[in-house]
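User: Structure tokens for this complex, please. No commentary.
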Amino acid sequence: MQRYLAARLLAFVPVLLGILAVVFLLIRLIPGDAVQLFLGTQVEMTPQQMAELRRFFGVDKPIYAQFIDYLGRILRGDFGVSLRTSRPVLPDILQRLPLSFQLASFALIIATVLAIPLGIASAVRRNSAFDVAARIGGLLGLSIPNFWLGAMLILVFSRYLHVSLGQYVPVTQNPLGTLQSLYLPAVALGAAIAAILMRYVRSSLLEVLGQEYIRTARGKGLQGTVVMLRHALPNALIPVITVLGFQMGYLLGGTVIIEEIFALPGMGRLVLQAIFQRDYPVVQGVVLVIALLFVMTNLVVDLLYAWVDPRIRYA
Amino acid sequence: MPGSTPASATLKRGAPAAEGPPSEGPRLATGWRWWVRRFVRNRVAPIGLVIIAASMLIAVVAPVVVPHDIRRMNPQDALVAPGGKYLFGTDEFGRDVFSRVLMGSRVSLIVAVLSVTAALGLGTTLGLMAGFYGGWWDGVSMRAMDIIFAFPAILLAIAIMAVLGTSLLNLVIAIGIVYTPQFARVARAAALSVRSLEFVDAARALGLGNLRIIHRHVIPNVLAPIIVQVSLSLSLAILSESALSFLGLGTQPPTPSWGNMLSEGRQFLELAPWNAVFPGIAIMLVVLGFNLLGDGLRDLLDPRLR
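Assistant:
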């Protein structure tokens, strides 16, 4: 396990550098340089003053030197300063991070709780009416755009059921209030994941149920539930862990859209607002933080996977 | 970090698209009739194909058949409920929602087809070369794909659109980049599994060049998983285009796209829900069509499930 851990951590470094390089280069694709972006179009300056400012910001150096500067700043926790509010970017992002993370996690929990029992039932009663219905439901779940589902949930709940959606309450103040303000957004975000997971659990379990050791277990007279709990499910559900980790990317990206619909003050709304205000340091910061969150979740999931399945770490 | 997981896990992860290509691809070229019969008997795939064909037909003929001019504003008829003169009702400017939904199919399908074509061309080439030649090229190109994969898809598309600015071409670029790694992975995995098979050795022993081996022996064997991937990527591309347009980063009004119609309709959600309901149903139907086709094709082409 230790060797596996070391290898995985080592492989993590180039990906981290790659992410940083992409986020760094993203801003270079914009026409005009950092100084012009900072000044906007309102300020008139002589070329000499511009050159001085470039030297001040360090953007007169070659690009690799600028990248090294950028790496140094990120390592020190300096994510730059907002062009609109002149406040440091990182504290603003960190303040909004909990909401987005709670929303994504809540959606993942809802999806898992729905998907695993449905997937198991669907596989066990293969080709029954229930299975067919679950599969159609799964396909629909994959096909419904999450923003539309969100809008429809708002419509149904506020117009027809007269349920007020309520403002977001931080979990430290009132955990129940947090759940109340996040359950609809979490359903809208989690529906597609529930569909993906259910389909995955179903096909994974069907594959395992066709294995010979299952026939052996049945053949030696074990009861159906024992075969299921002891032999089939553990083997079928292990690969599902990997799918869960991967879907964290969909969930973290999806928060941008869902927060916009439900007017939740998370990282997603921050980045959208920043895009429309051309506040690039904020855009850069949020994209970086979300990508880091995503790769770290995946690292944890991979390690977890290797821990529960020895075949992986000795491969 | 999806890319650096062991191969067994890599094949298993991701959207249903990535459930893993068959290790031995079936021959596509033999017995067309046999395939057509199997395709029709599959039941799922033909339904998908019918939905897709219908939406493509609508996209082509829409400018001729729409009952109302999609740009003409008609304040007296603003926010009229569905029925009568306006099948799907009207929006806040009195424009016909039905006509706009029909016209909206054009942007969605054009962007989806072009971006998936770009991703297919780039990703498959990279993946085939990585899988077939291996070595440093494999390492470099697959690490690059890992890095794209390290960003949530929609977030990367949003970031690219934010930087490049909104235009049809930029939409195609943004969505195309995001879906390239999937093709590279599928193509690489398939090329790897074929590379060491005996018939490739035999072809090499006969003195065939690499390009010819790839063309004659590798590509036919990676076709099946790639076709499935195309169908599933098209469904994701349509969802991405509509999400970007919904956020205001994709197709810009007054050009109607299902995403930006939904975004406008949301402002009158309670007063005139039809403005948001119908574009959403349109997206869902077309995406469902591609999912059905992709699912059905996978069942057909994956020998393990036969």
